[in-house]
Amino acid sequence: MKSYNSKFFRIRALSNLHVGSGETNYGIIDNLIQRDVLTGFPCINASGLKGAFKQFLDSEGVISDDLKYIFGSDTTANKVGQSNVQNQTGEYVFFNAYLLTLPLRSNKRPYFLATCPSILKHIITNARKFKDIELKDAETFIQNSNVESNKAYIFNKKYLNATIENDDLDIECKTLEESVKKLLFGEEQEELLLISDKKFSEYCSDNNLPVVSRNALDDGKSKNLWYEQILPRESRLFFSILEPTNSQTPDILQSSLKDNVIQIGGNASIGCGFCEINQIEIF
Prior knowledge:
The chain has helices spanning 46-59, 64-71, 76-79, 117-131, 136-143, 178-185, 197-203, 252-257, and strands at residues 4-13, 43-44, 93-94, 97-105, 111-115, 151-154, 170-173, 192-195, 211-218, 221-229, 236-244, 261-263, 274-279. With 283 residues, it is α+β, with helices and mostly antiparallel strands. It folds into two domains: 10-19 and 46-95 and 231-283, no CATH class; 99-208, no CATH class.
């Protein structure tokens, strides 16, 4: 059995993000985003992440042998008649990116970054399974954060009288465990809003996520108007990658991604999907 080192990463959406589900929808929204089949929260499937990273590393001039080692063979080669191409499975394992925080507009600051207990449990469970580490302070924090559906916790007293747009939440102030802050934001000083799983699900529903209109014009006339669902900019997601313990390309992926802007999903030509990706240092 292969031995792996697990790496955890955080995605920050610098622009609106549309990673389409590819499913036919007969409602008002034509193009829906991908969602986790278990929670229904927005996500990015591993295949989409893998493709975006491969395209970026290729554009950065990473040699083809290293790309093949990380991602596997380019399956398009056989499609164009290169029958002598040997298929190779990528040595790195990519997992889905799951939603970490969602920006919610407020009267006290432009937005809070909202999350919920089930998301925090998920990322800590992943850390325990793949990294074999304990985050006891963070686990205790979550266990003591039984948020009722009409309440929310903030962690800075100056925002105590804040309100969330289109909702009436009873906001209380709570001490934020430092490990949780690093888990969510790294060295950033964004303000966290902890809400219930039920309320978070409502904010992530098709009824509440932003929708943008798209239009195809022919000689100035509308020929095809459609609507696309997006994950708003400043959303955060997290994902993990398993790297072979004796990798022949150590740190190429994480060093290339760090401090660069990566485009993920569709609509690149209109500025969608541009993201910043950094490793979660707490792991």
